[in-house]
Amino acid sequence: MTTPSYRFPKDFVWGAAAASAQIEGAANEDGKGESIWDRFASAGGHIANGDTPETACDHYHRYEADTALMSDLGIPNYRLSIAWPRVIPNGDGPVNPRGLDFYDRLIDTLLAAGITPWATLFHWDLPQALEDRGGWLVRSTAEAFRPYAETVVKRLGDRVKNWFTLNEIPCFIGKGYADGEFAPGRTESARAVNQGYHHALLAHGYALSAVRTYGGPGARVGLVHNHLPPPQIPLIETDEHIAAARAEYERTNGQLMGPLFHGRYPEAFLATAGDDAPHVEVGDLDGIAQPMDYLGLNLYSGDFVRAGRNGLPERLAFPRQFPRGDLPWLNLTPQVLYWGVRHAAEVFGVPSFYITEHGAALADEINADGEIIDLDRREVMRSYLVELHRAAHEGYDVRGYFAWSLLDNFEWAEGYAKRFGIVHVDFETQKRTPKLSAHWYSQVIRENRIL
């Protein structure tokens, strides 16, 4: 019996990812403006243990050492994000040259180490000055994103060729403005929230145009999407259950994927939204639906769906003892890396993908020898990659995988209590220690196959 090689295509992109607000620190240095996460944390009562992103992983001062660490591990691609309030402190108006200088130094250091940068223009750290004027619920925030994106692409586009516009609209709009769990912590009406989704999509279109106009030869760009609720996995891979899962995927993702890939809001969404549907100005959907080079997918967990009564989709509850990570939502469902890709390709015609985040928050322990033997994280990563390999083997154009995250970091409302990193960070000393999963992943990258 032949053992599967689990080898990926020869040009498959392997990397690790992080986000500015979660690792940089230096929250008040070199002209950086206040972000909504700075304000949300300082207000108290929102972040576990009263943690703040003020220092985080101190990457702002330690980026050279962090780059050397990636080089030592053989990580050839790094997905980073640009902090809007570091570049334009008030969201619009004067540019902060010291902010751009930092990203110049970071990009140059990565390239000198042979690491390809993949830059995300917005990963949740909205300038507080724009939030004070309404945040994503007002169109002027999307309008302010256009010159910000143009400024960054003009400055870095001679060296950065791989771009992402915004990260996880359902999270920063849904959790920020609907249920108030994330910054800015607002609970607004369905109509206001739907309008916020539209403004974020509009900003995506502006950023895409910025890359097309100023990115230079070889520039590529896409959006990073996550799914709330999580992607649907058919309970049994038979026609009726696959059809049920697919129908539920189409229903729950139409608000975002419809404008992006079909140039319109689906009739089903508009009928459900009714008077709460977003106001759309002439030309908006043309800008939003500009062709992308790829779609980034952040995939962690999926929901199991079966064909219930009358064939209607039925979402199944997870039993108490179902395997999960160190967060209540982190049900370990490796199949989501296959079905998340397949549904997006079949339902919305997405041509190509990168897995821009996948990982697991787990309760790491340091042993007597100073090692972190995170066999659980290694097993999670390996089992998910098997499903990604299935997608690639079946012909879906999956071009890369970025582990989330490079470093333990400021995990939003969880503060520093939850650890996703393949590299352990002691937040008191800022010592970095690669975990077992990092060394395993390094070997996977080296051999371009699952080991």
Automatic annotation (TrEMBL):
Its EC number is 3.2.1.21. The active site is at residues 168, 357. It comes from the Bacteria. InterPro entries: GH, Glyco_hydro_1, Glyco_hydro_1_beta-glucosidase. It is an enzyme of class 3 (hydrolase). One of its GO terms (cellular component) is cytosol. Substrate binds at residues 22, 123, 167, 300, 404, 411-412. It catalyses: Hydrolysis of terminal, non-reducing beta-D-glucosyl residues with release of beta-D-glucose. GO terms for molecular function: beta-glucosidase activity. GO terms for biological process: cellulose catabolic process. Keywords: Carbohydrate metabolism, Cellulose degradation, Glycosidase, Hydrolase, Polysaccharide degradation. Pfam families: Glyco_hydro_1 (PF00232). PANTHER family: GLYCOSYL HYDROLASE, LP05116P. Belongs to the glycosyl hydrolase 1 family. This is Beta-glucosidase.
